[in-house]
Amino acid sequence: MSADSSRSPATPTHRQASRWYDADAGPVVRPYAMTRGRTSSASRHRLDLIAVVVPEPVADDPARDQTLSPEHVEIVELCSDMPQSIAELAAGLDLPVGVVRVLVGDLVEDELVHVTRPVPPAELPDVSILREVINGLRAL
Q1: Which of 51, 98, 102, 121 sits 20 to 30 Å CA-CA off 42?
Q2: b/e per residue, 65-91, with b = 16+ CB within 10 A?
């Protein structure tokens, strides 16, 4: 009697145990397909991880626009509740940051969102100058 013949019909074989189903397969659409193969957008804005995406008033119902992909619509909807950074959008959508940058760039070009960037530390006033101004105002 062979080892295989001793197995009962209820015992799954190795082939059956290694089979995966749709829920286990992960995303069906590859990231490069979402961006149509692009790795950057035509947007002239620099889309850092901390750049904040704010929807424009005209983007009240992005689902009506048939030219937008589901990911574009989802980005606008996520930002309509509260403006979000590129990093937050990537985490919320479970997409790579590069893909989110391209999709947000598309939305900027379509004027459905705008992007604000925090002031870089190099452009902030020096703390010592601010202290001197405060001391000068107090002396008046």
Answers
A1: 121
A2: eeebeebbbbbbebbbeebbbbebbbe
Please report, as a single letter, which amino acid is at residue 40. Answer: S
Ranges of beta strands (E only) in the chain are 52-55, 84-85, 113-116
**Residue with token string 């620099």:** 46
Tell me how crowded residue 103 is: count the other CB atoms within 10 A of its CB: 25
The 3-state DSSP class for residue 79 equals helix
Which backbone phi and psi does 101 adopt, to 5 degrees?
-60, -45
91-140 pLDDT, tens digit per residue, is 988 888 888 888 888 888 888 888 888 766 667 777 888 889 899 999 88
